[in-house]
Amino acid sequence: MPRPSLSFELARIFAGLGLPVPVAGGLEVRSPIDGSVIGACAPAGDVAAAVARARTAFVRWREVPAPRRGEVLRRFGLLLRQHKTGLGRLVSIESGKILAEGQGEVQEMVDMCDFAVGLSRQLYGLTMTSERPGHRMMESWHPLGVCAVITAFNFPAAVWAWNAALALVCGNPVIWKPSSRTPLTALACQGLLLEAMAGVDEAPPGLSQLLVGAAGLGGALADHPDVALVSATGSTAMGRSIAPRVAARFGRCLLELGGNNGMIVTPSADLDLALRAIVFAAAGTAGQRCTTLRRLFVHESIAAQLLARVQAAFASLTVGNPLQAGVLVGPLIDAAAVDAHRRALAQAQAEGGVVQGGETVAVADCLDGCYVRPALVDMPAQSALVCRETFSPILYAMRYRRLDEAIAAHNAVPQGLASSIFTTDLREAERFMSAAGSDCGIVNVNIGPSGAEIGGAFGGEKESGGGREAGSDAWRAYMRRSTSTINYSRDLPLAQGLRFDQGLS
């Protein structure tokens, strides 16, 4: 029996979500699984009009008590739970993730909603001591304004959910510009969120909007003076384009960009544990995560043993249609990604690297898909190529003798998202987490370069951006701080004991 077309599956998923199938419009959508057209949607219209609607919504939403704002996220979380299977499958179809990763992304959205609901009753300020008698100082946090969220194809829904959940709970409207490669997932998520909002009377029109289209939309949002915050996830090139434009008008930016993440494996490491972490971190999502492991520093005493095991594991991974059971590595996003993959491997060989794996893979019924086998590249040193990130399943392995040498090499790249060390030596672990250790925003021990999960401060340093999109105190990025001094006395003492009352009665 022939496999149903992806467009047929898409229609079934949207019907299950209670949403119309996006088949009309000038923006054609192809699945990386087989290159087939799976839908079409209309590009966004006027950015200025969307921002104006959001501004109008902001005036109303900022006065709604935070726990009531949290009710929107509670309802949204319930809808995500209800439609987890269908939405997760849509993520897989449109981005090429295996089914488990598609489901995992939706679960991340659910977790973020739960986090935001709790946060809605924990937004707080401070009471501060004043040097003036009879006075009290306090710090308050207020809604910031219109928040623009720009997301990439590799996490087509979860990153938006992080930002949107916090922004909405903090009293802000959200305008979402998704990747032009994954607009259908965005339409589905937006439809569910609007359904959740429909059940909350205080939620005004324009509170959540979707702008589908090319990169120019992100630029227009970055330039608009009424967009208070631009949160952008993607390549460092995109960050270099967006950040200066927002800064030029003194706007606020949250950036989470490419990682080029590293791992150090020491002689004391549990190698079975390290192997599992390496393979998942390097080959999961076909090497297209922001937290993908790309650089592996192994002590010379264990390098031959560990690298042989990594290569055997890479060779055993099933590469193919991500919708099929047992497949662990799906396609790259497009042909350009395959070309970049091939060029990187050719250059690595020219620089003395020994390449194992990395070849293209033909997948039945997916001949126009872009499939490659994970590659392990044994490099003589960390060259300029290794310092430049390639979004594909390439793992560069390098040997070291002293831990400080490995840490220095680990930090000698412009990116700074996630890092990890495998060791059972407390001194080595503490060294890696210290100020003299990893310079990344995420520093892990005996776990791969994963994100900091929902409650942790997910974000990077150096070229990986700045600020935190989620985490225990990340809500402050979505609010503005106000400091107030209250005089409850009958006197007006001036600061620092100044006298300014001559001639005043």
Explain how this protein is built.
The longest helix has 21 residues, at 99-119. It is globular, with a radius of gyration of 25 Å. α1 (6-17) packs antiparallel against α4 and α3 (66-82) crosses α7 (183-198). The protein has a seven-stranded mixed β-sheet with strand order 12-13-14-11-10-16-17, with helices on both faces. The chain folds into two domains: 6-257 and 464-482, Aldehyde Dehydrogenase, Chain A, domain 1, CATH 3.40.605.10; 261-445, 3-Layer(aba) Sandwich (Aldehyde Dehydrogenase, Chain A, domain 2), CATH 3.40.309. α9 (236-248) links the parallel β8 and β9 (252-256). The protein is α/β, with parallel strands linked by helices. The protein has 15 helices and 20 strands.
Short description:
It contains 15 helices and 20 strands. The chain has 505 residues and is α/β, with parallel strands linked by helices.
* Regions with little confidence, pLDDT below 50 for 5+ residues: none
The CATH superfamily title of the largest domain: Aldehyde Dehydrogenase, Chain A, domain 1
DSSP strand (E) fraction?
Answer: 15-25%
Helix content: 25-40%
Structural class, by secondary structure, is alpha/beta
In the CATH scheme, the class of the largest domain would be Alpha Beta
Q: Using DSSP, what is the number of strands? A: 20
The largest sheet, given as strand count, sense and whether it forms a barrel, is: 7 strands, mixed
Task: Give the strand order, joined by hyphens, for the main sheet.
Answer: 12-13-14-11-10-16-17
Named CATH architecture of the largest domain = 3-Layer(aba) Sandwich
Classify the fold: give the CATH topology of the largest domain. Aldehyde Dehydrogenase, Chain A, domain 1
Q: How would you describe the shape?
A: globular
How many domains make up the coordinates?
Answer: 2
What is the end-to-end distance?
97 Å
Give the mean pLDDT.
95
SS element count, helices: 15
Rounded radius of gyration (Å) = 25 Å
